[in-house]
Design brief:
Shape: elongated
CATH topology: Substrate Binding Domain Of Dnak, Chain:A, Domain 2
Order of helices and strands: HHH
CATH architecture: Up-down Bundle
CATH class: Mainly Alpha
Radius of gyration: 12 Å
Number of domains: 1
Length: 74
């Protein structure tokens, strides 16, 4: 359950950040989310959470660097 929630949170932030951050960072975060889904499917829960959290961190950092307040997202 925790793994699925982590992936969903990262996906939500991914779509929120579309067009607001560099495309290369957005693409990298999307790759990590896809990795997280793959790991979840293969029951590698620790790896799935790590990939989802890394994607979230990339997005969060890029948004903060661009001056976005994440309170708008939450």
């Amino acid at each position: 359950m925790r793994t699925t929630i982590a992936i969903l949170k990262a996906e939500n932030l991914l779509w929120y950040s579309k067009g607001k951050i560099k495309q290369s960072i957005w693409n990298k975060a999307q790759d990590y989310i896809n990795d997280a889904k793959y790991f979840l499917k293969n029951r590698k829960y620790f790896n799935a959470i790590a990939a989802a959290d890394y994607a979230y961190g990339l997005l969060e950092g890029a948004l903060l660097q661009q001056g976005y307040k994440l309170s708008e997202f939450y």
